[in-house]
Amino acid sequence: MTAQVITVTSGKGGVGKTTAVANLATALAADGRKVVCMDGDIGLRNLDVIMGLENRIVYDIVDVIEGRCKLKQAMIRDKHYPDLYLIPAAQTRDKNAVSPSDMMRICNDLKPDTDFIIIDSPAGIERGFRNAIAAADRVLVVTNPEVSAVRDADRVVGILEAEEKGSPSLILNRLNPALVKNNDMLSPEDVLDLLGIQLIGIVPEDESVIIGSNRGAPVVTDAKSRAGQAFRNIARRIQGHNVPFMDLEQQGGLWGAIQKLTGRK
Amino acid sequence: MEQTTSLVQIKGIRDGLLATFLDAPWEDQCAALLAQVDERPAFFQGARLAIDVGSQALKVNDLVDLRDRLSERSITLWAIVSESQVTEHTSQLLGLATRISKPRPQEQVHHEVVSSDTALFVAKTLRSGTRVEYPGNVVVMGDVNPGAEIIAEGNVIVWGRVRGTIHAGSKGDRAAFICALDLSAIQLRIAGETSAMLKPQKDPKPEIATINSEGRLQAELWHPG
Prior knowledge:
By secondary structure, chain A is of the alpha/beta class. Chain A contains 12 helices and 8 strands. The longest helix of chain A is centred in the middle third of the chain and has 16 residues, at 147-162. The N and C termini of chain A lie far apart (48 Å). The relative contact order of chain A is 0.17. Mean pLDDT of chain A is 91; it is low at 249-253. The N and C termini of chain B lie far apart (67 Å). Helix content of chain B is 20%, strand content 34%. In chain B, a hairpin with a 2-residue loop joins strand 1 (8-13) and strand 2 (16-21). The A-B interface holds A 96, 99-101, 125, 127, 130, 134, 147, 151-152, 154-155, 157-159, 161-164, 194, 196 and B 46, 60-61, 64, 68, 71-72, 74, 76, 90, 93-95, 125, 127-130, 143, 145-147, 163.
């Protein structure tokens, strides 16, 4: 097998990149795929925390690059899924410790016996972002339905197009249907209209995401969570399955979905 | 070695280092620059580099490749100065600056004279962070998104939605106009006049913005004929 390298990026910080990486990696592993996720945010690592693997870190990506350990030694196996690994970022170094060609080399070493390599990009469009996209076969842009996040996503899409990385896919994270209904939040249509890229999933705002992150158990493992379902659907779409959008996600069915939700309450 | 390194002149400017490429094929110039860097890695470590590439027309791949190779040597390429419209455009796409604080001495002399019959044609949506500057008319087939800028000495026509910033008649032509299928720009400017944000409309119609007889910038619906 040869792995597909997927980079998750956003431009703006705090929109849910790391959460998306942890959840997609876990969902792909739950589907029986062999997955390695890499934290590209050197100096501000937190993918390990969200995956609940913080206390197992011995070596990190900079140790691999600088030859202090073998790649296998820096790969931390997940607690629940034996085919899910994390390569953590270094917390005590900065972005300059890694170059785009280092990332290419590590991905090429991993590719032969992995299905998916998922890279968590840092916020911004500088060095760390360049490193994160260097090896990408496919890029997922995460944004929130708010003006500043969408503008930054637009900038990132422009750079990806200029670098001939192909058109990225969009994850619209933290959509609150009630706010959209009151015209207090950008609708999925507004965001897609502006960005003009393919939508791969809409994740509704859901407090179980925060609870899961704090517990180190990504929300995809919670069968009842709607956000978890949305991430599981995105993982299926990444694997090439045609999964219909959830009720909430359908453009025409959005209002119906809200009425159903409010009707239940 | 001397032959190759003499293709590139490097000097310090206020914003970092400026490398000036002399007349030679692009690959040779890049090789010469990297050779100079590798000779004195400590001097270049962590530098901010601007490059004056002269009149060469460079594609995205050329610049990305050079930028990555510089980045591996801990050098940040932040600006490309060029006389070529193609190269300027490429640099803007990559988010590199195309102006440096020290003006090029020959800039004014070299100023391109563009006929009012011709226009720069941009066949795509201008995304946030893109800046198009042109000493003439600009036609965009696509949208101008928030955070994108067009600065034209002539008129600007957008076959799409305008939600960014547009300045027409940037050298003072008060007869310049801006028209678009949907004109909900963050800011429009014609010559010295500025309009505040135009409210997005529910059912947008083509509009044209001009300076009216009272000397104010005004947008009105476009009527054929």
